[in-house]
């Protein structure tokens, strides 16, 4: 067996907590009778709403059009009538307009088998169009619209195409389920990307508990006679982050403020490949995704295939409700996710998980003084010194904060996780970034 | 919605990411280290009786009282830091030291070395070690009188109290253990029995002979600081703390490497022998080296923040400790080594600044890839 690779610097080992959820097959969540569909479900510009109140929409109908290149289409997850247009605060704190659809009428795609198209006969441009039309965005991270991310400038070449089969965070097991349940579709999806990007090497990276999906994948790769390689990585967090993953697999260190594409690497996660597969072969818009529902307060943790716009409360109910009093309700993973108090929050393209955590799981420590132990320095995968940044931020010395590399911070959460003094380092770094951006913006205005 | 999904939102915490935390807090770290040295302390009490108990009580009590009385800056008695300082400090005291000396040193450690510099997390020196060194300076006589364990007959040994002191003060063979034997240093029956057994079953088959005299300090039947005598208990405790990531591995490992290397090179020279023939085992087992490197040098605040820095710091402290042990004024004064190296910590931190991911280490410039836009 090959040596298990990993990134060298930093990282932490939070408990994985995947045992219960990962062993049950993904099941289809009930179709919600009411969907709240935000028009901002990706990074960049919100989609432009093209439906009115009272309008009837079909399943998969476009309700939000891409307003700009850095935008993505939004489709109706269920057929029905637009009952309301509301303003919504998303889990990540952004404001968005949302279309509320009450279920009514017939499903045109659900339950019908569609004959897969032969993508090999499609031109590249047509494939990009399909991806863009289906509103596919990165399902593992910030939701970068895929038609912008996996396009190359004419001069650049892709050396590495890395398919991220590492669970991006602890608790999550949806990638593992997809790897186990849909290896053939995954490999076919990767082959589409290989044609679009013509990378020199293509690797599926598996880390931690997803490593056990390797045998099924090997079979699928062999059956497709593809030159996709499989790479097993150590289960260290944040193995699934683009920068650390490129470091682990390709041995290339790309600073946090740069994109890995600059180093000739493309990273795509398993769920996004499958969304592309469905878009290109089946012409299916992105209206559902797999969500891990887990945490100590969930009665039956599992992975659910959910229509976008369903409320997180519906999901929790479907997983047997609460079996203990939750202390934190998290949309997303435990390291980067957002704490919410509202069970009506809709599932969006960015919702990788819904966690209900108990007091014991949080292990929260009260904030005390920094003891300069340096654990944050040793945990930072980007080689930053959060303790120094913490001091500089307290002094509002923004110039020094930038020089110390605040914009290389990928907000992975290692420093805040490990800090024995419970200092909210990630919050401080985020606030510093937005403060610096705001001041730069103001200076720019004044100069004009 | 059914009742199982009813939610008491007032009990929900909303905080920025990360939403979970590692199990260790500063308070827990302090108490875990204190728990780690507790068995060694108990062993000291059993060996040296009431005087040892009074010294430790005085040290811990004075430290806690000082923390409680002084105006609050950061932290409190409950975070265990002051108590840990008092405990570590007094465990490095000779059992026969006067209790008021421990109390005065503890007040100095917590009040001056820690509090006056800004409290928890702001001390420049390790307060426990500084307190121990202050006592040495204030009362060199009292701090050099070590009792023989009760199990070995009690009282005091005539040629200076501990094995290291005896070896250094008296003339005789080059080998420290032989010199001790010539001086009539007390040795337990257990030592002879265990050494004989080990030789018969373990070492003779591979052609090595273990001289008697190593087992006593390993178990802890030797004169020394109250908590410093039993290598066994200290090793077990530090293994547990290392496993739970309470203390770092870099500092003790580097410390030991530096110490062992220096002892190996000069250990014999100090006693009239030749270079490279030093007895590393003897010096590791005697005189509080293990205690210092596992529990004092690993202090959160005192040690550098970077991994490489910790290695550098440990190496320097280890070498210095060996040099002080062999050639310094006080045979039992190697705690000074940690203090001296502490002064260099800001410099060490600067020199060993981590290479930023995607930057070349030497030029601190981004590698191949520039950020877009």
Walk me through this protein's architecture:
The complex is a heterodimer of chains A (448) and B (373). The longest helix of chain A has 23 residues, at 425-447. With 448 residues, chain A is of the alpha/beta class. In chain A, the strands form 4 sheets. A 6-stranded mixed beta sheet of chain A has the order 1-14-13-17-15-16. Chain A is 29% helix and 19% strand. Chain B is an all-alpha fold and 373 residues long. Chain B folds into 3 domains: 26-144, no CATH class; 168-223, no CATH class; 247-350, no CATH class. Chain B is built from 16 helices and no strands. At the A-B interface, α9, β15, β16, α14 and α15 of A face α1 and α14 of B.
Structural shape of chain B: globular
Arrangement of strands in the largest sheet of chain A: 1-14-13-17-15-16
Radius of gyration of chain A: 22 Å
Task: Provide the helix percentage of chain A.
Answer: 25-40%
CATH C-level category of the domain at 19-23 and 116-282 in chain A: Alpha Beta
| End-to-end C-alpha gap of chain A | 62 Å
Order of helices and strands of chain B: HHHHHHHHHHHHHHHH
**In DSSP terms, counting alpha (H) and pi (I) runs of 4 or more, how many helices of chain B?**
16
Number of strands of chain A: 17
Corresponding CATH architecture of the domain at 19-23 and 116-282 in chain A: 3-Layer(aba) Sandwich
In the predicted model, the low-confidence regions of chain A spanning at least 5 consecutive residues are none
At the fold tier of CATH, the topology name of the domain at 19-23 and 116-282 in chain A is Rossmann fold
Structural class by SSE content of chain B: mainly alpha
Quick check: average pLDDT of chain A? 91
Number of helices of chain A: 15
Residue fraction in strands of chain B: under 5%
Largest sheet of chain A: 6 strands, mixed
């Amino acid at each position: 067996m090959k040596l298990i690779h990993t990134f060298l610097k930093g990282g932490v080992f939070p408990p994985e907590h995947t045992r219960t959820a990962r062993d049950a097959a993904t099941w289809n969540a009930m179709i919600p009778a009411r969907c709240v569909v935000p028009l901002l479900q990706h990074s960049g510009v919100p989609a432009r709403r093209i439906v009115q109140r009272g309008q009837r929409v079909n399943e998969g109908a476009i309700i939000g059009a891409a307003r700009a290149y850095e935008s993505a289409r939004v489709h109706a997850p269920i057929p029905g009538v637009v009952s309301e247009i509301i303003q919504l605060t998303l889990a990540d704190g952004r404001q968005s307009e949302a279309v509320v659809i009450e279920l009514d009428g017939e499903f045109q795609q659900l339950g019908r088998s569609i004959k897969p198209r032969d993508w090999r006969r499609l031109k590249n441009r047509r494939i990009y169009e399909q991806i863009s039309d289906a509103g596919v965005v990165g399902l593992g991270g910030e939701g970068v619209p895929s038609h912008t991310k996996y396009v190359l400038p004419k001069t650049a070449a892709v050396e590495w195409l890395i398919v991220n089969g590492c669970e991006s965070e602890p608790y999550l097991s949806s990638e593992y389920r997809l790897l186990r349940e849909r290896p053939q579709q995954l490999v076919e999806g990767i082959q589409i990307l290989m044609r679009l990007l013509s990378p020199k090497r293509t690797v599926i990276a598996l880390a931690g508990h997803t490593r056990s999906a390797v045998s099924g994948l090997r079979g699928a790769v062999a059956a497709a006679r593809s030159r996709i390689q499989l790479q097993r990585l150590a289960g260290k967090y944040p193995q699934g982050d683009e920068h650390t993953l490129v470091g682990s697999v390709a041995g290339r260190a790309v600073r946090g403020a740069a994109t890995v594409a600059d180093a000739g690497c493309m990273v795509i996660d398993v769920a996004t490949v499958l969304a592309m597969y469905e878009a290109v072969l089946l012409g299916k818009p992105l209206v559902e995704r797999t969500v891990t529902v887990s945490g100590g307060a969930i009665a039956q943790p599992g992975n659910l295939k959910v229509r976008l716009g369903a409320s997180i409360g519906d999901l929790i109910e479907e997983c047997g409700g609460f079996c203990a009093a939750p202390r934190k309700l998290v949309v997303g993973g435990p390291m980067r996710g957002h704490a919410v108090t509202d069970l009506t929050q809709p599932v969006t393209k960015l919702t990788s998980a819904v966690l209900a955590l108990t007091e014991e799981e949080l292990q929260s420590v009260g904030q005390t003084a920094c003891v300069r132990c340096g654990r944050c320095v040793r945990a930072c995968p980007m080689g930053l010194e959060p303790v120094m940044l913490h001091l500089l931020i307290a002094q509002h010395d923004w110039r020094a904060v930038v020089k110390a590399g605040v914009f290389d911070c990928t907000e992975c959460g290692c420093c805040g996780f490990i800090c024995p003094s419970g200092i909210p380092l990630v919050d401080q770094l985020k606030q510093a970034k937005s403060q610096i951006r705001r001041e730069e913006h103001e200076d720019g205005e004044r100069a004009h | 919605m059914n009742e199982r999904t009813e939610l008491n939102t007032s009990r929900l915490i909303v905080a920025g990411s990360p939403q979970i935390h590692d199990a260790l807090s500063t308070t827990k770290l302090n108490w875990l280290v204190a728990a780690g040295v507790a068995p060694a302390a108990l062993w000291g009490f059993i060996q040296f009786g009431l005087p040892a108990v009074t010294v430790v009580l005085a040290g811990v009590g004075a430290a806690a009282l000082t923390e409680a009385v002084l105006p609050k800056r950061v932290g409190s008695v409950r975070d265990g830091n002051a108590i840990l300082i008092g405990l570590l400090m007094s465990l490095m005291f000779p059992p026969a030291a006067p209790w008021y000396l421990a109390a005065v040193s503890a007040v100095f450690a917590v009040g001056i070395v820690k509090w006056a510099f800004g409290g928890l997390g702001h001390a420049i020196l390790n307060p426990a070690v500084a307190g121990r060194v202050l006592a040495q300076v204030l009362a060199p006589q009292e701090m050099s009188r070590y009792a023989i364990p009760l199990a070995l007959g009690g009282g005091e040994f005539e040629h200076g109290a501990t094995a290291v002191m005896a070896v250094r003060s008296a003339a005789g063979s080059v080998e420290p253990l032989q010199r001790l034997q010539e001086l009539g240093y007390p040795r337990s029956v257990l030592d002879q029995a265990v050494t004989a057994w080990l030789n018969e079953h373990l070492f003779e088959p591979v052609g090595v002979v273990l001289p008697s005299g190593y087992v006593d300090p390993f178990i802890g039947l030797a004169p020394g600081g109250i908590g410093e005598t039993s290598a066994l208990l200290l090793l077990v405790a530090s293994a547990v703390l290392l496993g739970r990531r309470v203390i770092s591995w870099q500092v003790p490992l580097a410390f030991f490497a530096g110490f062992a290397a220096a002892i190996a090179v000069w250990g014999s020279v100090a006693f009239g022998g030749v270079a490279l023939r030093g007895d590393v085992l003897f010096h590791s087992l005697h005189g509080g080296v293990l205690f210092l490197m596992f529990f004092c040098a690993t202090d959160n605040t005192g040690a550098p923040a970077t991994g490489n820095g910790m290695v550098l710091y440990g190496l320097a402290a280890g070498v210095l400790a060996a040099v002080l042990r062999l050639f310094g004024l006080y045979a039992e004064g190697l705690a000074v080594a940690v203090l001296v190296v502490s002064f260099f910590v800001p410099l060490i931190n600067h020199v060993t600044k981590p290479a930023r991911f995607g930057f070349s280490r030497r030029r601190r410039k981004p590698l191949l890839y520039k950020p877009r836009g």
